Amino acid sequence: MAKTLVYKFGGASVKDSIAVKNLTEILRNRLRKDMVIVVSAMGKTTNALESILSRKLAKEDFSQNSSTLKAFHLEICEGLFSAGHPIFAQVQNLFLQLENKLELDLSRENYDEFYDSIVGFGELVSSRIVAEYLCSQDLLVVWKDAREVVKTNSDFRFAKIDWEETKKSCSSQWKPLLGNFPILTQGFIGSDPKGKPTTLGREGSDFTAAILATSLGASSVTIWKDVPGVLNADPKIFSDTRKFDELGYREAAEMTYFGASVIHPKTIKPLANVDIPLFVKSFLDPEAPGTKIHGAAIPHEVPTIVLKKEQILVSFKVTDFTFIEELHIHRVYERLQALKLRVNMLQLSAISISIVIDAQLFKLDQLLEKLKSEFEIRYNEGLELLTILHPAQEGISAYLEGYEVLLEQASRNTFQAVRRKI
Ligand code: ASP
Ligand code: MG
């Protein structure tokens, strides 16, 4: 039997009715019975759901936000279906369920769990609409809830995969269908041992594609994007970008580690472990070859630029005329770990530890609160972390012009700077 193919379509590829029609054309000649199609929420729906949650937390009215979101989805349906199609009632019904859930109590204490019960809604409604539309175009797919096979622990918002259980459910519940029907499902969401909804972290749908591919023993994963493939810099920020025809797993993983948003950072490892190739292709130019990420790629030396925004630089200074010792580093890392904060850059001096972390709701306060008795702490928000892999020495300064550099670090293969616009 031919092996399963996994396709993933992100938010931009389903952002309006024209995009959904384009996705349909991509599938027209490519759909096969042993295929899993993973879709994200439409456009910026997940951001919109996050804003609804922040408003609710702040006890502000969010009814306007939820009606705008509903209107957005209904308008997409209007572009795809004729009046009276059952999808309209389905979408109304899903929004009713969302509104009911939003009636429940939310506080800082249950925020993460509440968040996971809400934000996956974008994927659920999107996958319904796309599945209905494909079927209406004679591309038969079976809609499946990813939460029945993607099993996680209960780390809400950043749930960890239970690989064993996920594999088992994939084999028992989805394998028998594949080969007879393609499956259309959602990225980003899973469920914990009690069956509660969880999410895998923002932009996690790529990771879902990798999880399903690994668990189903797929032959490849294709991520359909609005870029021609993996480029050596984000074309939305930098000019003169170059596309890689192929990349090794390690090189690709390194780029995502430093913040390249073309693929979710967790996507590569599970695929690399079992040698499943990952294709990144353009949904605007589906015939073009894109980028192939696989184990046998020839290494390259092309300077690769990655920018991470919304960064915070925190410096912990020892207060008692001593010097930085292992114990100090340990204390800071212990807190970071407890808060599930990853350090994007670290620099030590004789009397201080400087770290760069992503800005995340509440987390900075919690970090400072715990450590303020031991250190003199300073921080700067709203920074950017620039990483250049394989830097060409003469090229670096161009990226720092017009910026104040707060921290800088260079090794033979990597240059990093924390910068702020002057
Ligand atoms: N919809 C989710 C997000 O925007 C997951 C994804 O798109 O990958 O984060
Ligand atoms: Mg997305």
What does this structure look like?
The protein is α/β, with parallel strands linked by helices. The chain folds into two domains: 5-225, Carbamate kinase (3-Layer(aba) Sandwich), CATH 3.40.1160; 304-421, VC0802-like (2-Layer Sandwich). It is built from twelve helices and 16 strands. An eight-stranded mixed β-sheet has the order 3-4-2-1-7-9-10-8. The protein has a six-stranded antiparallel β-sheet with strand order 12-13-11-14-16-15, with helices on one face. β9 and β10 (291-294) form a beta hairpin. The termini are far apart. The mean pLDDT is 95. It binds aspartic acid and magnesium ion (MG). InterPro entries: AceGlu_kinase-like_sf, Asp/Glu/Uridylate_kinase, Asp_kinase, AsparK_Bifunc_asparK/hSer_DH. One of its GO terms (molecular function) is aspartate kinase activity.
Strand-helix topology:
Blueprint: E1 5-9, H1 17-28, E2 35-39, H2 45-57, H3 63-80, H4 86-101, H5 111-119, H6 121-136, E3 142-143, H7 163-174, E4 183-186, E5 189-191, E6 197-199, H8 205-216, E7 220-225, E8 246-248, H9 249-257, H10 268-273, E9 278-282, E10 291-294, E11 304-318, H11 326-338, E12 345-348, E13 352-358, H12 363-371, E14 375-389, E15 403-410, E16 414-421
Parallel strand pairs: 1-2, 1-7, 2-4, 3-4, 7-9, 8-10
Antiparallel strand pairs: 5-6, 9-10, 11-13, 11-14, 12-13, 14-16, 15-16
Bound molecules: aspartic acid and magnesium ion (MG).
